[in-house]
Amino acid sequence: MKIPVSGGIWVLLFVLSGCSKDPAPEPQTEPAAPANQATVVDDAAMSDESASENWLAFGRTYSEQRFSPLDQVNAGNVASLGVDWYLDLPNARGLVSTPLVVDGTMYFVESMNRIRAVDASSGEELWTWDPKVYENSDMRIGWEHNRGIGIWKDKVYQATWDGRLIAIDRANGTQVWSQRIYDQGMPLYNTGAPKIFKGKVMIGSGGTESGPNRGYVVAHDAETGEFLWKFYIVPGNPADGFENEAMEMAARTWTGEWWKYGGGGNAWHGFTYDADLDVVYIGTGNGAPWNRKVRSPGGGDNLFLDSIVALDPDTGEYLWHYQNTPGETWDYNSNMDIILADLEIDGKTVKAMMQAPKNGFFYVHDRENRKLLSAETYAEINWATHVDMETGRPVERPGARYEDGEERISPTPAGAHSWHAMSYNPMTGLAYIPVLQISAIYNDEGIDPDSWQSAIFEGDTTAVGWRIIEDRTHVAGSLQARDPVTNTVAWEVPMYGIGNAGTMTTAGNLVLQGRVDGTLRAYNATTGEELWSQDLGLGISAPPVTYSVDGRQYIAVLVGWGGGAAGLGGDISTANGWAYGVHDRRLVAFSLDGETTLPAQPPAAEAQPIEMLQFEIDAAMADQGAYEYGVRCTVCHGWNAISAGMAPDLRASPILASQEAFASVVRDGSLQVNGMPIFEHLSDDELLAIRHYVRREAEKAIE
């Protein structure tokens, strides 16, 4: 038996996390070199689908299939999986990243962009790197989680919340170089994993909802950090001239003075390098503001929003594009995985590309001739009826743009599929997608176009009135296996809750996925039969990976619910008794020889709202506070002020008793070190209104 080793936020965008007295981040451990570094992580290694020991990138290889050739753990014996080792992560909160493994060393990023290297066969810590984002940012906006890192040769790469692209020595965890990819104070942030190819590191940014900015991707030299090229996703002010012909072309699809709103399109995830064709594909984001009639009042497709854009990897030059949702107006984006695979279609091998973006259509393209092969719905949608295969454009339902009042629309801003990874198994020929089935009401209420032109934007993130209308305790979803050749469902397993984790598949005829209920599950990849599950005691957002060391196959996953869905899932945390600062975040590894006992999580600890007899609630003030809380606090502190465990439950916070104490945290940044952003432009009245709203919700619970 091995001895366990202990170690030392979807779309409303503004994160209030970490308002309690968590311990400060741990000091960096003494660097220790990994045992061996025989694998050269370069284009050849990233293109090798047959190499099985390592997990070198977000999707394992350049294809982004998240498929492993390992089959020691398989459909016949997966029921014997046991915990091999685990690592406690006491200062972590939301964990959503994909660990990488090279030659027996695992590298992963946890909260606040801290990176750890551990022995992949024991969990023994080798080094820790802390970029101290709380010291290098004004912390106005962003998320404290991160989806992953990159590796190239002897370096690890990360994009930090505060806008730095950093190279770290893989052997000892020390910084090699650091470059700013945007200036401090800009309404941007980073949560994505860098994409590395041909000696270049490419990254985009988040921030579509955070104010007036233009989405882009940028590439730097992997060895030196030198800037190489930048591609903007939407055009800027025509009076300033256009950077290239692509932006001039795109500008013809916009109207009004869109540049005053930035336009959006931010590329924060969904990057794939095609080594066969020497092309890099980027999935682009939604519009800013969401409602097209605000940013582009005369209509138009608004290129290159919600698209797949193909670029020359050496120069960043535009090659071609396909727009999934022309003139998007629902927060539909295409920042989802772009998977490459060879498919047998009509007797021919086709170099295909597949994607399941938010809008509910599953797209398959021939990436050699750029032809759309199929586009079929993989979830319930009602904004469009189908995709016209002659034009490649969706056929919209009249009224779907909510131009004449409220409309019930499917999917919602959460999407039919969000950033939670899908996978593809070339042996079964199936893609595995975490699907969400849910509707929302959209309307034009609350639009404030002027706020989008403000340099201190901290308000309504959408310029759209919307609300989820289902009972959130019965949010429908599924794990769907889809045949990309016929574009039909092969099998489907129902699942509950927003934000179920991404998938991984193997040659052992397995699909593995974590769930928001805290279980890791294994399915027969051909039939969908559930073969094994283990309760890990806390919601899972991160996708699992698999690798081998000395002939033993491991399956590993980060445990600790994170991302926007975690902040919005107060019903799930309440049902499970998950509370902020109580339940342990962990990295857990399994093997067929695993006999380690995973300690049980602490007892359920539902937050207990406290009484404040001296606090007399003003109804009008509380109503105003409901709005202020909704656009700034909900995504971390939860709907109706009920925390989902990723941030403190404010109904139980004594800080609410004092205007001065509340202001010190929310406006003055006294808890930045714990991931709490600064809302420096909130007035005294706005702060007071939030306090009245939260106290009203507390009194409801006490009654």
Tell me what the structure shows.
The structure is a single chain. The model is unreliable at 1-33 and 470-474 (pLDDT under 50). The protein has 703 residues and is mainly beta. The strands form 11 sheets. The chain has a 5-stranded mixed beta sheet with strand order 1-3-41-40-39, with no helix packed on it. It has a 5-stranded mixed beta sheet with strand order 2-35-36-37-38, with no helix packed on it. The chain is built from 9 helices and 41 strands. The chain is globular, with a radius of gyration of 24 Å.
Shape type: globular
Number of helices: 9
Number of DSSP strand runs = 41
- Order of strands, widest sheet: 1-3-41-40-39
Proportion of residues in helical segments: 10-25%
Low-confidence stretches: 1-33, 470-474
Sheet of most strands: 5 strands, mixed
Radius of gyration: 24 Å
Average pLDDT reading: 87
What proportion strand? 25-35%
Helix-strand category: mainly beta
Distance between the termini: 50 Å
Give structural attributes.
9 helices; 5-stranded mixed sheet; mainly beta; 703 residues; globular; 10% helix; disordered N terminus; 41 strands
Can you describe this structure in just a few lines?
The chain is mainly β and 703 residues long.
What are the SSEs and their pairings?
Layout: E1 5-6, H1 43-47, E2 67-68, E3 82-88, E4 100-102, E5 105-109, E6 115-119, E7 125-129, E8 150-152, E9 155-159, E10 164-169, E11 175-180, E12 195-197, E13 200-203, E14 216-221, E15 227-232, H2 245-251, E16 263-264, E17 271-274, E18 279-283, E19 287-288, H3 292-295, E20 307-311, E21 318-323, E22 339-345, E23 348-355, E24 361-366, E25 371-377, E26 384-388, E27 393-396, E28 407-409, E29 423-425, E30 430-437, E31 440-443, E32 465-468, E33 476-483, E34 488-496, E35 503-506, E36 510-514, E37 519-524, E38 530-535, E39 545-549, E40 552-559, H4 564-568, H5 570-576, E41 586-591, H6 619-632, H7 634-637, H8 659-666, H9 684-702
Parallel strand pairs: 1-3, 2-35
Antiparallel strand pairs: 3-41, 4-5, 5-6, 6-7, 8-9, 9-10, 10-11, 12-13, 13-14, 14-15, 16-19, 17-18, 18-20, 20-21, 22-23, 23-24, 24-25, 26-27, 28-31, 29-30, 30-33, 31-32, 33-34, 35-36, 36-37, 37-38, 39-40, 40-41
